[in-house]
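quick one before i forget lol
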Amino acid sequence: MSGRTIAIGDIHGCLTALEVLLELIQPRSEDTIVALGDYVDRGPNTRGVIDRLLTLRRECELIPLLGNHEEMMLTVVRDGEPPYQWLQYGGVDTLDSYGFAGDLSVISKEHVDFLSNLDSYYETGSHFFVHANYDPNLPLADQTDDLLRWVKLSEYMPEPHYSGKRAVVGHTPDRGGEVFALDHLVCLDTYCYGGGWLTAMDVEQGTIWQVSMKGKVRQTQSK
């Protein structure tokens, strides 16, 4: 029996929601889970989220993508750049989760290595997955970092990709907690840390699982 392909939207430190979501999904070894990026910042437990993603790799095929928040974090913790932008956009919450007291070594090498080896995109025969956005006329390997990680759908709504595959993205939060879906695109950022939901979707079957930051559950079906 072939496995499922399941995408998970922006987690942003919401460990309780992630744990309950994975209990609902019940990942199997033949499944592929594509995490769409932004595991860090804003929510209360970035450290726990990354630990859980590391253990998830032993349960299924995990494809973790690079979000703009991981990019900001890496420029500080790996590259030694000034922290001002990262701190402005949720880095304080991440540092708190590690018990930061002035020394960045509190963030383990295992976590920095995980973040340093995230993918920019993933594709199957019918879908492709990116954190934020895309140019419909370019192969995924030729997309700019700005589009892949930073440009919201509210800034630029792409046409269908020339490949004919459906895009699965995060990054643009629906503050009402609803999944934004078009025939050629679906966005799974449903604002968990801000009072919405953490969303996962079986991209072939259309099953959608959602869990709130406090662990409340709902399940729907996508078109």
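fyi The CA atoms of residues 1 and 30 lie 8 Å apart.
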